[in-house]
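Let's do one together. I've listed all components of the complex below, 584 residues spread over two lines.
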Amino acid sequence: MSDIAPSADTLLMAKPAPRSRNMGQILRWLILFIGGIAMIMPIAYMISTSLKWPHEVYNVNLIPEEPTIENYTYVLEDGRFYWWFVNSIIIATVTTICNLLFDSLVGYTLCKFRFPGRTIVFIAILSTLMIPTEMLVIPWYLMSQSFGWLDSYWGIMFPGLMTAFGTFLMKQFFESVPDDFIEAARIDGLNELQIWWTVAMPLVKPALAALAIFVFLGNWTAFLWPLIVTNSVDMYTIPVGLSGFGDEADVAWELIMTGAAISTIPTLVVFLIFQRFIIRGVVMAGLKG
Amino acid sequence: MYRNLTIRQKQIVWAWAFLAIPVLFYTVIRFYPTGNAILISFQNWNLLGDRTWAGMENYQKLWNDPVFWKVFKNTFIYLLLGTPISLVLSFVIAYHLDKLRFMHGFLRMLYFLPFMTSAVAMAWVWRWFYQDVPIGLFNNILAGFGIPQIAFLQSTTNALPAVLAPAVWAGLGFQVIIFMAGLRAIPTSYYEAAKIDGVGWFTVLTQITIPLLRPTIVFIVVFSSIGFLRIFDHVFNMTTNNPGGPLNATKPLVLMIYDTAFNGFDMGYAAAQTVVLFTILLIVSLIQLRLLRST
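Okay, and this is what the predicted structure of the assembly comes out as:
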């Protein structure tokens, strides 16, 4: 992205404060503040409604008169959300670990090794960025059907175990690891696997964290493929389960909002804790990936 | 035997050892299915019976299918409404947010928070907002002011923008962050020079800021275009009682693919639709490369 490529660090550096706080600045702040509050209203209403008694649900007030966790107790005692939550955690975690390992290994190899076939492998992997998931779901479904992968964790996970995006991102970041470090490790007698794991990997931790956030969030919210590959209620992930739950004939809106809150709150909490860090990761991944 | 190899040969062995599983993965899980999808698009197959060769039949059927043209139009309306709206909104927000210091991080967090939500969960929240009185929030608020009701998801004209709104809302935070990174990367010396010359803010915006942001703008346009062309989660969840309805008014291409393949089990026809989607995305990506290269 040419010479003015934005960097993640400049974003977080404080700019010198403007000399005068005039009316214009105050007005600008107020409008942006109101806009920002409007942005989080859907989330606020979702959480507020999940804490309301049925008789109060259709009131437009944001703060529940008598907050209750009755809806959460009801939804969790039903048992299904509990399983969907567990399924989503397992699937997102395993997929994230796989991506971290394989994407960085491939990115490292393509960045630091010179071998015949390197360019072809790189271009081949990069070209898969052009192939939309939607085109692959039919063949994946047929494949899963013939190998008996339908309705299993493996069936949900296998398409996302490695991504071209992650590989490309990691390759970019391994460029910043000096070749001298690798040479020195070689002279010390480490084998290539040890060099990758003990020398190169610790140096790209920020990139690994950025990738982990993207992959985890992507798999936590993934909908189309899990919807296709799962049949039994026990195997649903949270988005698939929530979609079916909302569609049941006589489900009350406060219960749907509770389900939606259960699927959203974990990522929101993680974001609020690691806010600065996640925003930097998003910028890094967005611009380098 | 390994001991006798030169350093260079050892490197080649290691490289291919590292790449063995990934190369297998990309071949079996990415390239083979791509070829397979194209192959199936020339066949007739309902999953149970035999696969029979159909030639161009599926594509001809697609060309003559009024539902496909409706869906094709919808997909491009999502793109042509969603991309400019989210581009302008996110730029305006980022431009002004960049000039503020007081509680800057807090404001940025407010705008970014929706990006961390799940599309399915938020589709249900918005679906609730859109319900009629006495259920839906929007119509309850309108009723409070004595304004007549608006039919959101039941109306053939309002349904598509109503479905698009949460998709734009959820993606805005990401674009704001990317724009702010782009704005911060513009050297302040340009602005200082403009200040010395006494140039007005509008000229600074159109002559300095926007031209220098071009790579960022191209990136955001392409990123969001691809997202809107592939819209599915929001539409499916806001119209589960009649997916893509009313009267296909909200149905995008991906939903048609899903329906044809997994409700109609017409695999050949669905595969032909995926090839069309692939072609559209490819053309959009190529236009992107063109634009990037000319900068």
